[in-house]
């Protein structure tokens, strides 16, 4: 079998028209169409070997195959078809090339890659994050909480306008939370702040809970406020804040590893991917905290209605972004989820 192509001498950029003779016994010979004494020595002109003593490049699409001899000469073929036939006869055809021509194998590989990525994102990263978060010592949790509170007080929060009496009542409400469904390590601490016109509650990494004045004004029933506190305790019980910090770090490293040292559009896509995945994890954490609160309310009151009422009141608060761009799920989704615990 004769293959037309070009040969290149070692340490030279000059190409020479050549033929590659492929024998059925595995023998290989490269015959140069012309010999330049300045390039080709007597030893070089005898380019004969066998399939076991030559390097043959892998077949990748239409990229020409190359044959590299032990003396450094390289022959590049004009056409791969005959080479594939010869290699098949020699039982040396690349598995990658076989895969490339097998549409079923390609489809299966893509599906397997997608399933693997889905599993890593939905199970692998949360599981690893949970183990890492669990090993973080309390002194680090306290440091993170102190820093977060200091930053929020400096840039966002203002002093609460709630009366000392109301603050004392709500602190007593937290201290009196008692349910067989709750296993809470440490003593939760309750703080009050004003945050523009926002009704919200926050949990810090050390278990400190912050209620805003607007939330206390909006939710006046103490059983409903207890539902809010239970939800925040649920975040601490499941260690959500530390998990999310670890998850964000893992996602950032993973996405940047996949994208590479990207700039411009690539960097933007990497940041957007990390943000969207982090928001997805955050929404899952909110549903988990809702479930914790709902189970505690069922244990104490036999109903999840206090939590449902709070969620319905929060639904009246204006939202300017679509669900997939929020850290919290849609209110209707949350209500439906807790009603699975109390279907009546």
Automatic annotation (TrEMBL):
Residues 197-339 form the Peptidase M48 domain. One of its GO terms (cellular component) is membrane. Its cofactor is Zn(2+). One of its GO terms (molecular function) is metalloendopeptidase activity. It comes from the Bacteria. Keywords: Hydrolase, Metal-binding, Metalloprotease, Protease, Zinc. GO terms for biological process: proteolysis involved in protein catabolic process. CDD domains: M48C_Oma1_like. Pfam families: Peptidase_M48. Binds 1 zinc ion per subunit. Belongs to the peptidase M48 family. This is Zn-dependent protease with chaperone function. It comes from Moritella viscosa.
């Amino acid at each position: 079998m004769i293959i037309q192509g070009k040969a290149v001498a070692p340490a030279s950029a000059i190409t020479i028209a050549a033929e590659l003779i492929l024998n059925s016994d595995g023998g290989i010979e490269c015959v140069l169409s012309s010999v330049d004494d300045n390039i080709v020595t007597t030893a070089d002109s005898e380019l004969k070997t066998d399939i076991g003593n030559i390097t043959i490049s892998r077949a990748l699409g239409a990229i020409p195959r190359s044959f590299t001899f032990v003396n450094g000469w390289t022959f590049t073929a004009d056409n791969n078809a005959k080479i594939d036939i010869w290699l098949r006869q020699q039982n040396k055809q690349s598995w990658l090339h076989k895969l490339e021509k097998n549409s079923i194998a390609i489809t299966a590989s893509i599906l397997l890659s997608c399933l693997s990525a889905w599993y890593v994102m939905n199970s692998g990263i949360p599981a690893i994050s949970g183990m890492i978060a669990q090993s973080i010592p309390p002194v680090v949790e306290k440091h993170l909480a102190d820093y977060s509170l200091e930053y929020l007080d400096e840039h966002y929060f203002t002093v609460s306008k709630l009366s000392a009496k109301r603050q004392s009542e709500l602190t007593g409400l937290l201290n009196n939370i008692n349910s067989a469904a709750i296993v809470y390590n440490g003593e939760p601490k309750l703080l009050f702040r004003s945050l523009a016109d926002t009704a919200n509650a926050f949990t810090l990494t050390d278990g400190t809970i912050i209620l805003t004045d607007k939330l206390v004004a909006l939710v006046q029933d103490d059983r409903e406020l207890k539902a809010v506190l239970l939800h925040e305790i649920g975040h601490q019980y499941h260690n959500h804040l530390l998990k999310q910090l670890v998850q964000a770090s893992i996602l950032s490293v993973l996405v940047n590893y996949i994208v590479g040292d990207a700039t411009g559009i690539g960097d933007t896509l990497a940041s957007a991917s990390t943000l969207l995945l982090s928001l997805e994890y955050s929404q899952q954490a909110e549903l988990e905290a809702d479930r914790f609160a709902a189970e505690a309310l069922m244990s104490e009151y036999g109903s999840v209605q206090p939590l449902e009422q709070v969620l319905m009141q929060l639904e009246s608060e204006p939202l300017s972004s679509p669900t997939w761009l929020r850290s919290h799920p849609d209110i209707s989704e949350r209500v439906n989820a807790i009603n699975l615990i109390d279907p009546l």
